[in-house]
Write a structure and sequence with these properties.
By secondary structure, the chain is of the alpha/beta class. Helices cover about 40% and strands about 15% of the residues. Helix 8 links the parallel strand 2 and strand 3. It starts with a helix and ends with a strand. About 5% of the residues have low confidence.
């Protein structure tokens, strides 16, 4: 949870003044659980926009319309696909045993040393994601209550899962990290409508069936493009007729490239120019890489949806990649047609 000092400093730096009152500060603390929520709230306010008028343009915050294309090799053998998945799984198994909560939301409050005071606010953030999901559905004439079984890919420590189990009669939650899943199990063991599943091999994803709703945010992006594509193809193929999927995938990273063999030998360093600004966000590839971050172009997502018999109902740019001057992330709502 943000502090009084966070709010005061944000006002001084961005608004050039002090907050109006203690009540205003408390309002931010109650309604903006993360620092990014506070900053976005102030930056998008009418007051800030008026102050910045003539000084800043949308181009300062978004990828330019004439951005250069990415060079992505999507051709992989079954053996390479297994190797790519194993590489990502190894990353998350390691971090799941050290900083599981922080790996879900990279805020210093969620480091293991600080969890005693921040565990409740951490899980409370999942309610906002569920509220966002309901808004997407409502805009498209749908209600969460009309679905029976939700499959969540990348449930982690159960941040959002703990809210999904209140919204769906049945939830299947899967992850590749045993450490994350153990924490989720300890927190949600009493929920009879929840089945947790560990994915040790990518092919095991195809075993998950019988769901009419799919949910996944800030998960697919941590896999190389061919893995993202394989996962999405498999999930949408197994989604029930008339079922709905809501998922998030970055669609563009500036200066990004992907070559399977280069990545398998050199890791994320092979995907970036080391001077690229996004390295400040995801970690310096010349040092220890905490976790991968990859895009899948929109055209690939649209093709996958089309071939799976799914209609794209809504696609929006979102804030999940953080650095929006050099990247684009999209949230998709799709529905499978009845055959």
């Amino acid at each position: 949870m943000i502090t009084n000092e966070d709010v005061v400093m944000a006002y001084r730096v961005l608004q050039g003044r002090e907050p109006e009152s203690a009540e205003v500060i408390q309002g931010w603390i109650e309604n903006a659980p993360l620092q990014q929520d506070l900053l976005v709230g102030i930056i998008t306010s009418d007051e800030f926009q008026r102050r910045m008028q003539g000084r800043l343009t949308a181009g300062h915050f978004r990828v330019a319309q004439d951005c250069t294309p990415m060079d992505i090799d999507m051709t992989v053998t079954p053996e390479q696909l297994d190797q790519l998945f194993a590489k990502i799984k190894d990353q998350w198994e390691k971090i799941g045993g050290t900083e599981a909560h922080w790996s879900v939301l990279s805020d210093e409050r969620y480091r293991s040393a600080n969890l005693a005071e921040s565990i409740a606010p951490f899980y409370a953030t999942g309610a906002k994601e569920l509220s966002t999901l309901r808004s997407y559905l409502k805009r498209n004439g749908l209600e969460l209550e009309s679905f029976t079984t939700c499959f969540e890919l990348g449930c982690g420590v159960g941040r959002i899962t703990s809210h999904l189990v209140d919204a769906f009669p049945s939830v299947i939650a899967a992850d590749i990290s045993g450490g994350h899943l153990q924490i989720a199990h300890e927190r949600l063991a009493k929920r009879a409508n929840l089945r947790l599943k560990k994915l040790d091999f990518i092919a095991e994803l195809d075993d998950i069936r019988g769901f009419d709703f799919f949910y996944s945010i800030i998960v697919l992006q941590h896999n190389p493009p061919p893995v993202i594509r394989w996962m999405l193809v498999t999930i949408l193929r197994n989604l029930a007729d008339a079922g709905v999927a809501f998922f998030q995938i970055p669609s563009y990273y500036e200066n990004y490239q992907f070559r399977v063999e280069s990545y398998l030998h050199e890791g994320l360093q092979s995907c970036w120019n080391v001077s690229d600004p996004l390295h400040e966000h995801w970690g310096n590839p010349a040092e220890e890489i905490i976790y991968d971050a990859h895009p899948l172009p929109q055209r690939e997502v649209f093709r996958i949806c089309r071939e799976a018999g799914c209609e794209v109902m809504e696609v929006r740019e979102d804030d999940w990649v953080g650095e929006q001057r050099h990247s684009i992330s999209n949230s998709y709502l799709v529905r499978k047609r009845v055959v």
